[in-house]
Amino acid sequence: MQNNLNTNRLLLDPIGLSDADFVLELVNLPDWVKYIGERQVHSLEAAKDYISKMTNNSKIKYWVVKLKEDRTAIGVVTFIKRDYLQHHDVGFAFLPNYRKQGYAYEATVAVIDDVKRNRLSHTHILATALEDNVKSIKLLEKLGFQFDTEIWVEDAGLLLYSLAIDKPRLEV
Predict the structure, then answer these.
(1) Domain 5-121 is found in CATH 3.40.50.10420
(2) What residues have CB less than 8 Å from 134, skipping those under 6 apart?
(3) Strand ranges across the sheet with 60-67
(4) Domain spans of the chain?
(5) Which of 154, 153, 161 is nearest to 137 (CA)?
(6) pLDDT of 125-169, one tens digit each?
(7) Residues 16 and 40 sit within 8 Å (Cβ to Cβ)
(8) What pLDDT, on the 0 to 100 scale, is given for residue 167?
(9) CA distance 17 to 20
(10) Which of 2, 10, 1, 43 lies closest to 110, judged by CA?
(11) Per-residue 3-state assignment (H helix, E strand, C coil) for the chain
(12) d(CA 108, CA 95)
């Protein structure tokens, strides 16, 4: 089971079936579909199935990011071991009204710091982005990720970024 995490402004709760409405909204955003991919989640039942697949896979850690003040779900941060990557990768997606406010940075730092504290066998965290996903790339660089190489997955070129987690992290 994964940990609940928190920062000064945010709660990061493991995803659960009660998050189905939020997931349905998030995975159908145009930016999600463009940069992450179509998930064929177009009903509440499909959202619950999607969540079940996430929670029943030991390679996937999936947090719903919520505002501390009222528990409004605003985004997600993931930590996934993908078959085509040597190390786990971190990902993030936020609702449009909650972008450009530092929430994605704050939540991702919390996940990276949790990995450092509790998963000592990890030496690196990876992240991928499409070349035209400039906002995500800027955030990865702000988090300390360095461009590594370009990889091809299912006919899509992805920029691969790496972060050595033995380096000190900023606390939020």
Answers:
(1) no
(2) none
(3) 5-6, 10-14, 60-67, 73-80, 89-94, 124-129, 156-164, 146-153
(4) 5-121
(5) 161
(6) 999 999 999 999 999 999 999 999 999 988 889 999 999 986 444
(7) no
(8) 45
(9) 6
(10) 10
(11) CCCCEECCCEEEEECCHHHHHHHHHHCCCHHHHHHCCCCCCCCHHHHHHHHHHHHCCCCEEEEEEEECCCCCEEEEEEEECCCCCCCCEEEEEECHHHCCCCHHHHHHHHHHHHHHHHCCCCCEEEEEECCCCHHHHHHHHHCCCEEEEEEEECCEEEEEEEEECCCCCCCC
(12) 15
* Residue for token pair 């501390």: 68
What residues form DSSP beta bridges with 162? 126, 146
User: Would you say 113 and 169 are in contact if contact means Cβ atoms under 8 Å apart?
Assistant: yes
Residue closest to 139 by CA, chosen among 170, 100, 172, 86:
100
- Give the position of tokens 């719903």: 64
Return the half-sphere exposure (C-beta side, CA atoms, 13 A cut-off) of residue 121: 3
Contact present, 27 and 46 (Cβ < 8 Å): no
Give me the residue label for tokens 């936020």: 94
* pLDDT tens, position by position, 47-86: 999 999 999 999 999 999 999 999 999 999 999 999 999 9
- Do 160 and 128 meet the contact criterion of CB atoms below 8 Å apart? yes
